[in-house]
Hints:
The protein has 139 residues and is α+β, with helices and mostly antiparallel strands. It has helices spanning 52-69, 87-92, 94-105; strands spanning 9-12, 26-29, 32-38, 77-84, 111-116, 127-134. It is built from three helices and six strands, in the order E-E-E-H-E-H-H-E-E.
Amino acid sequence: MTETTLIQNLTVNPDSLGKPSGFAHGVLAGKTVYLGGQTALDKDMKIVPGNIVDQFKQAFSNVLATLVEAGGQPEDLVSVTIYLTDVDDYLANGREIGRLWREMAGSKYPALAGIGVSRLWQPEALIEIQGVAVIQDRA
């Protein structure tokens, strides 16, 4: 007879982010962190003003804050999906967004997808980022 270990799923809701209602910022299942879609919401749950670069910075900061709260680091990201209301605007600002990515997460990139959408949950949101990370053992 084999022994089965149950993995308890833990919600991850950093104090630095707005209090979620009806969702979790992240869920930790074993060593895997499922990072809920993050728009450019500030702590007061309002979209930060600005362009796609400003919103990318806030949304990605929210993703990384959740990952760190779960015990991970940016290099643990294995998959990231970016939803965009204006793909051309994102591409036009790609160099600056890439610079921000490297500044915030380093130069190790996960599997990545960019998807154009007609709109996001908050009408003023230009971008939403979600991801999956596997927390590595560190010596």
